[in-house]
């Protein structure tokens, strides 16, 4: 049965892929955007999260919302103001959607929202399930506030699914592009100890998890969206280098140097997050890409 999905965060890598995939399978897609523009086969409605304004007609005929909107955490130094913007973009956008759902007649039953593995903070080799306690750094605090805002949708009797996203791998976007750049320039080296766990996922599996959450009424609550076999930063660096036919330096970039250059943002590459994918797999989801070499081969061979 075809669905009508309202999507936020449509201009991001995942948003673009989700739109194309949903349209191909015959679903109807509407999006919320800060700026007016034209999209083929997609209705565009305006919203302004800062002003808490939204075109309420965006809900007409919609039965599901996929909420991906949020400021890019890797864009700009983490000043106090920037941290506030990162959190507010997630919390206030979620609150605006729920406020609209509570006051405007609609038939929305499902709310599938992005979340992030930053929730766990820096945990070394600890195996992290969805029941694990949150961490204590800025990324964890952001995710805690974000998820609390999402959980408010339960008061509207919505089926809520929170997808804790890992490091999404795609060729010309996001984390992989950033990791591959120094390697391409013959400057590839593990970061910090190199022993920190990187919970990666192929972008196609990321899209497929959202469709799985959308289509399966049994899914509710939080799920790790990371491949079954995470790798260390050192293993990730070497695997990318093999695909690009580049060497990797025998030494690591010291943790203190990264902290000096990136400040608090260094936690993005130094956090160790050893997640398990058992819960999403137990729900019936089958990963297409379970091994890093297999995923990278597909991405760079495409």
UniProtKB/TrEMBL annotation:
CDD domains documented for this protein: SDR_a8
SUPFAM superfamilies tied to this protein: NAD(P)-binding Rossmann-fold domains
Pfam family, one: DUF1731
InterPro entries registered for this protein in UniProt: DUF1731, Epimerase_deHydtase, NAD(P)-bd_dom_sf, SDR39U1
Domain NAD-dependent epimerase/dehydratase: 5-224
Residue ranges occupied by any DUF1731 domain in the UniProt entry: 253-299
Sequence similarity: Belongs to the NAD(P)-dependent epimerase/dehydratase family. SDR39U1 subfamily.
The name this protein goes by in its record: TIGR01777 family protein
């Amino acid at each position: 049965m075809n669905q009508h999905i309202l999507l936020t965060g449509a201009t991001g890598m995942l948003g673009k892929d989700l739109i194309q995939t949903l349209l191909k399978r015959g679903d109807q897609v509407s999006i919320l955007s800060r700026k007016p523009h034209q999209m083929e086969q997609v209705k565009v409605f305006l919203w302004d999260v800062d002003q808490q304004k939204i075109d309420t007609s965006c809900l007409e005929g919609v039965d599901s919302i996929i909420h991906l909107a949020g400021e890019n955490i890797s864009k700009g130094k983490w000043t106090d103001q920037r941290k506030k913007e990162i959190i507010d973009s997630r919390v206030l956008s979620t609150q605006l959607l729920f406020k609209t759902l509570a006051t405007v007649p609609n038939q929305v039953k499902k709310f599938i929202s992005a979340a992030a593995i930053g929730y766990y903070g820096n945990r070394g080799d600890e195996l992290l399930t969805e029941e694990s306690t949150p961490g204590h750094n800025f990324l964890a605090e952001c995710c805690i506030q974000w998820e609390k805002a999402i959980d408010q949708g339960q008061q509207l009797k919505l089926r809520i699914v929170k997808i804790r996203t890992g490091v999404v791998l795609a060729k010309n976007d996001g984390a992989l592009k950033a990791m591959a750049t120094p390697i391409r320039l013959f400057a590839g080296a593990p970061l910090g100890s190199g022993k920190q766990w990187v919970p990666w996922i192929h972008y196609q599996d990321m899209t497929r998890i959202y469709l799985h959450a959308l289509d399966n009424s049994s899914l509710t609550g939080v799920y790790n969206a990371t491949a079954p076999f995470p790798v260390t930063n050192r293993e990730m660096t070497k695997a990318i280098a093999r695909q690009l036919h580049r060497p990797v330096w025998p030494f690591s970039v010291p943790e203190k140097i990264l902290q000096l250059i990136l400040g608090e943002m260094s936690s993005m590459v130094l956090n160790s997050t050893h997640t398990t994918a058992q819960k999403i797999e137990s729900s019936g989801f089958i990963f297409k890409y379970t091994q890093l070499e297999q995923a990278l081969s597909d991405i760079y061979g495409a």
